[in-house]
Amino acid sequence: PYNGPSADEVFQKRKKFLGPSLFHFYQKPLNIVEGKMQYLFDETGRRYLDAFAGIVTVSCGHCHPDILNAINEQSKLLQHATTIYLHHAIGDFAEALAAKMPGNLKVVYFVNSGSEANELAMMMARPYTGSLEMISLRNAYHGGSSNTIGLTALNTWKYPLPQGEIHHVVNPDPYRGVFGSDGSMYAKDVQDHIDYGTSGKVAGFIAETIQGVGGAVELAPGYLKSVYDIVRKAGGVCIADEVQTGFGRTGSHYWGFQTQDVVPDIVTMAKGIGNGLPLGAVVTTPEIASVLATKIQFNTFGGNPVCSAGGLAVLNVIDKERRQTHCAEVGSHLIQRLKDLQKRHDIIGDVRGRGLMVGIELVTDRKDKTPAKAETAVLFEQLRELGILVGKGGLHGNVFRIKPPMCFTKDDADFLVDALDYSISSSAIVAKLYKKEEAGRKKVMEEEEDEDDTFEDAVCSKTPARVNTPLSVITEAFENLADLLKPDIS
Ligand code: PMP
């Protein structure tokens, strides 16, 4: 049993001693004390199905035994020495990672996070090409460090800092984008930016293949192939940010960029690479890597023995447990079930994604695609009450992001879809009644003789008994809506 401080004590201390920019999910923040594969436990011992994996990070499952073992065994021998000495773990891990890459992507730099990986990618692209101009997509997230904030194109994350020489091109978003699914039209916008906004030469182009923070937006088909050609003709290198899409998560491929049939010049990784260890990597060609050889590029912890041993164990687990195939199978089942649900609930505007990287975009009307911001916030709270943790994202916070540990099963997927179905159905009733509440409960009851049930009775009788969401949670959620409508985390 847990003997630590209560959720409130933890929260108070965090508020007092940690920076005010910290963001938390849920009105009553969840205090997680333990994790086991696809489950998390709070301090009362309540179990939650984790469909967000600590933001797509716990790729193989919480405290996966093989990975724990590798970390523990290495920790007992040597935790840290840094690359000024030799240690086999970093080379073993780099070799295994390079073996997963296509083409001539064979040189690895290890860092500690995704932001650092993208910083380093830019640090190579600029001197290598002799140009400063970078291109990234609107709605992209590539980090929160002072340079990567420039690549990130969502106002919620941008502090007033120099944003670098960065062009944000039209997002090839098949659902909301002006050109629908026509990848070539969006690619033309990249050419226009180069022609009108630069000297004609660029340093590079960076994109995720499925935008994570942006709300699981898959790029229009054919987009990357055309853009890579355009960028290379303008002297630039092509960078794939695989921080969220890598390591088999998309099911059909090991790397996200393979879904668009391209081979990048630089690939950046983090999150799932370490199953929770602070680890990131940049993989590139020997030629591009050599541009940093003119100075020293040093990173104290990058590829330290414990992280390298853990990272290697992650690669082995993904192969041994056939996680890529598993993601394809469970993901297609999940997506199909969500598409069926979409037929019954107008609020579901779009279901998209690949494998276990799925987005559900909620809209108040399907024609104008008005983001169902408040409704998403309420449903998000309800799912938590039902024991399911999902992510939330998109500029308007109206997209559920489903990116569980890759051990997530079909049964888990079914539970998630059933819970969402139940929450949407019960919320529709609550929302309707809540409006009537505003008009005055008495008046409603007088006017509608056949509906003589009270607000509470109506909700409880019209929802399945299987899961009993306390009504207070739903109504409270409506009352504190302003609190829920804050920007989202990465
Ligand atoms: N790239 C992508 C696609 C990301 O989603 C994130 C984090 N959300 C980053 C880069 C930055 O990673 P980190 O938070 O580890 O710096």
TrEMBL record:
Chief localization: mitochondrion
Span within the parent record: 50 to 539 of 719
EC number: 2.6.1.44
Cofactor: pyridoxal 5'-phosphate
Subcellular location as annotated: Mitochondrion
Name the UniProt record assigns to this protein: alanine--glyoxylate transaminase
Subunit structure: Homotetramer.
Annotated keywords: Aminotransferase, Mitochondrion, Pyridoxal phosphate, Transferase, Transit peptide
Family from the record: Belongs to the class-III pyridoxal-phosphate-dependent aminotransferase family.
Annotated organism of origin: Brassica rapa subsp. trilocularis
Position of the signal peptide: none
